[in-house]
Amino acid sequence: MMSVAMFGLPSPRSLEFSSMPAPECETNPAGKYDGPVDYTISAFEESCIKTETNCYNRYHPAIPLARPETLAMEVPSGSVVDFRTRDLWDHPDPGLTQPWDGEDGAFAPIPDADLNFDKAYGDLAAVHIITGPVGVAGAMPGDKLAIEILDITPLAQGFTMSHTPLGFMNGVKPDGNSPEEYKAWVTWDYDATTMSWTSPSFPDVVVPYEPFLGSIGVLPSAETVALKLEHHATEVELYDNPQWAVNPELAVPAAVCGVNGTHATECLRTLAGGEYFGNTDTQRMGVGTTLLLECEVAGCGVGTGDVHGAQGDGEVSITAIEMAASVKMKLTLVKPGDAGYATPTPAMYGTTSIKRMSPGEFISFMGFPFKSSGTLPSQYVWAKDRIDTLALTFLMEVGGYTYGEAMVLASVTVDLRVAQLVDKPAVGMEAVIDLTVFKGAKYAAFKQAAAWAGVSDVGPLMG
């Protein structure tokens, strides 16, 4: 079966940071690109773990470029490629828009969240499913690649989960940061007309559609892999266990990274990024951004996945609005001497998306790194623990949400920001809650709680 469709062979083009003029006022990120697509590579239709079709979930230079039956997936510089992705857990859908077929199917329909959690934990070694890797003709180590994100479109519903052992909270105090046990599983429906997400779990919440690539990168060199493995060894000393240890279970491609693979003890998980980029979960990787990376292997090897429909900076519950997606990107090779080559990497160039994603109306909570005597944690950890506590308390007390639901909303809509570092170790961090996502009586309640005496009664600025 031919999984990659070729629509034409474009001639190599010079580096262009944007193929479209920056709009004066962006109101949403979608529908931006209606130009030609030169190639399509899809991992959406079939399980990556079962078929290994156009996908991978580990990083190593021995991973071959995606090669369908009749076309080596090496595209000319300047090509526009449509990467069709699955969600991070190798599931095409949360289970509500297609029949659920048990052990081999997608996540089960709500309210069977317990089954979904069991399935998610059982498949944790599969994370993240990446579509690719796509080679760029003529790319050599030391060259750079400009990856322009032209469009991101959902292919299915989204979901968000929160659970006590996951994310930053990492369990219940005193061993973790959470004051109580919590658990929540939420599905989201995308409205293409309003460019927003809604959920039956949150009838008074509308989340703007602000998609971005949670994971994107190029294949790392053997030297980079060795450096990362050394880093993992240091993590054992610092944290008692490696944060994202090498794991050959459910690894793709199995011939390279699986239990009996040729490099089973070397393949990096996709979870911790590096100079090759990888899993960064930054909002900056949205439509209109151009990512500049240095190639570390011949062909460079570009892949993307773990696409998010919306996320607050921080992704505190370990998931955003997770979704399968069509991601259209232009891949342009930058050789020594070309415009842009001198820019240090990794680098991201963008226009107005960073302004558009800032809330028009907000309440912010500040945290400082107060800690118990005799403990030596990171000051950032303690500062963040404090602001998480304040923001989550506000969501629960005013909105009536459970702790798990508050974690979901925080992960999807609350931005965690570093306010200042100059007063180290007393650094300052903020949790910024976007009040405009709440509607009707829920918005009125949050506005009343946020706008104390002396604050003008003005509505959210939506322009």
From TrEMBL:
Molecular function terms from GO: hydrolase activity, acting on carbon-nitrogen (but not peptide) bonds, in linear amides
Protein name, entry field: Formamidase
The organism's taxonomic lineage, starting at the top: Eukaryota, Haptista, Haptophyta, Prymnesiophyceae, Isochrysidales
Pfam families, per database record: FmdA_AmdA
UniProt superkingdom: Eukaryota
Originating species: Emiliania huxleyi (strain CCMP1516)
InterPro entries, per the entry: FmdA_AmdA
PANTHER family per record: FORMAMIDASE C869.04-RELATED (PTHR31891:SF1)
